[in-house]
Amino acid sequence: MIITLFLFIICAVAICKNASKSLSEKQKFTDIVKFVTALFVVNGHLFVFGGGPHSWAQEMNIGPLCVSLFFFLSGYGLMCSYERKGAAYFKGFLSHRLGRVIFPLITAYIVTLPVYRIVVGEIDWHTVFSTFYWGGPFLRFSWYVTEIVLLYLFFYVIMRSSVSKQHKIYILTFLILLMMGVLIATKQPIWYIESLPAFMIGFWFQRYEKISCNEFLTGGGKKIGVVILLSLVLLITFHWHFVAKYIQVLSAFRYQYVSYYIMNIFFVILIIIAMKGVEIHITFPSALTNSYYEIYLMQSCAMFALQDVTSSFPVYWLGVMLLTVVLAVLMHKGNSLLMKKLKI
Fold it and tell me: Which of 330, 329, 288, 321 is nearest to 302 (CA)?
C-alpha cells in the first residue's frame, strides 16, 4: 500500500511536467535510483530473513521489484551504449563489462568467507565452489550475478552477429523468453525468472523511447487515468494475499505466482514515468551512488557480522544497513583501484 501510494503521487507529479530528456541524459539521477533501490533490497531481506515484524514483512519486501528495475536499467543502458557507439562498443566488452561484474563478486567472497568462518562456523569448500553461481549460504543474494553475465553474453553474441540490425532485438527477445521457459520448465526458483521481462523492457523502451513518451505525454487527461490503472494493478498484485482471500477464483498459490510476473512489470513502467518527469537537484556523493552493486554483494557479510550482536531488530536493522553501505563504499574504492591496475 505504501509503495503504491508513493509511486502514484510521484507519477502524478511527473506527468504534469513536459519531460524532454531521455533517461540516458539523466545518468546521475539513474545512479541515485540504483543506490536507493539497492538499499530497499537489503531492507526487504532484513524484514523477511532477519527477524523483522511479520506484519511488516510483506509491505517491506519490495526487493524483487527493485531487482527488476536494476535489470531494466541494465538492458536500457546496454542498448543506449550500442546505439551510440555501434560495433566499437564491443571492443574489450567481455573483459570490461563482465570483469566489472565478476571481479567484485570474487572480492566479496574474499571478505565474506572469513566473517562467515568466525561467526557461523566451518567453511565447506566444496559448497563454496558448487554454489558459486548462486551464492549458496555465503553470498545468499548474489544469484543475479550469474543471470546478468548470461544476459550480457546473449547481448554480445547477438549484437555482434551478421544478422540485420532490425532483427537482432527480436532474436535477443526470443533468447530471453526461451531462457525463461527453460527456467520455468526445470522448476527453478521464481526469483531467477521474474526480473527477466524487465531486461527486455529496457532495450525495447530504449528503441521506442521518444515515440512512446511523446504519445503518452500528449495524451491529455488520459495520462492520469493510465497512472491510476497501473497503480491499481500494482496494488492488487503486490497484495495478492488479500485478493486470494476475497476473490476466490484461483488458489492463493496461483495468485501469488501470477502476481510475481505482473507486479514487476507494472512497477518498472511506473518508475519509468516517474524518472522521465522528475528531476532531482540534490547532489549525492559519487562514492555512495557508485557503490550500488557492492551493496547487493556485501549485505550478507554485514548480516553475518551483526547477527549475534543484538536481539533488538531495530538496532540490528540499523546496524546492517549502515555496515552494508560502509563495506560497499570501501569495497567499491578497492575494486576500482585493483581493476584499474589490472586494466579491467
Answer: 321
Identity at 15, one-letter amino acid code? I
Cell for 120? 557461523
Q: Ramachandran region of residue 136, left (φ > 0), alpha (ψ -120 to 50) or beta?
A: left
Cα Rg for the chain, rounded, in angstroms?
21
Q: Is 115 helix (H, G, I), strand (E, B) or coil?
A: helix
Side chain identity at 3, as an amino acid letter?
Answer: I
- What whole-number distance in Å separates Cα of residue 87 and Cα of residue 93? 10
Taking the C-alpha atoms of residue 238 and residue 212, their distance in angstroms, rounded to an integer, is: 26
Residue 266 has, within 13 A of its CA and on its CB side, a CA count of: 23
Which grid coordinates are listed for 289? 551512488
The answer to whether 1 touches 239, Cβ cutoff 8 Å, is yes
CB 250, CB 258: distance < 8 Å = yes
- pLDDT tens readout for residues 272-305: 888 887 777 777 788 888 999 999 999 999 999 9
Residue 191: DSSP 8-state: G
User: With bands split at pLDDT 50, 70 and 90, how would you rate the model's confidence at 243?
Assistant: low
Neighbours of 45 (CB within 10 A): 20
Nearest to 149 by CA among 182, 106, 186, 88: 106
Are 52 and 317 spatial neighbours (Cβ–Cβ below 8 Å)? yes
For residue 321 the three cell numbers come to 544497513
Residue 58 near residue 241, CB atoms below 8 Å: yes
Torsion of CA 306, 307, 313, 315, to 10 degrees: -10
